[in-house]
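quick one before i forget lol
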Amino acid sequence: MKKIANYTLIFALLIFTSGCVRHVGNFTMLATSELDTKHLSKEATVKGKTSGEVKIFILYTPTLIYIGDTPKIDQAVSQALHKCGGDYLSNAQVFYTYWSAILFGKGGYRVEGDCYKINR
C-alpha cells in the first residue's frame, strides 16, 4: 500500500511539473548599441560562439507574481556580448525558456550566436 502511495505522489508531481523552450526567432545581426554597418564585414573579427541568458522566478498565485524585473531580450544579448567582449552577434537565435512546478517556476530568454568585435 505504501508503494502505491509513493507512485501516486510521484505521478502527481510529474503531472504538475512542466517545461518548454520556444524558438522566438533567427536574426542576422543583434546588438544593443548603434553600429556603423558600411564596412562591417572588413572591420570585424570573429570572437567565437557565445550565449547569454536572463531569467526570473515566478510564483503562481491567483495573479502571477514575478520575483525580479521582467526579462528582456536585450539583457540576454548584452550578457552574451559581455561574455565574449564583442560588439554584435551574427546568426543569432533567440529562445524563450521556462519550467514550472505546481506553485513556482522560472522563465526567461536565451540568446546564442557568433560574436564579432569591430576593429577600430
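fyi The radius of gyration is 20 Å.
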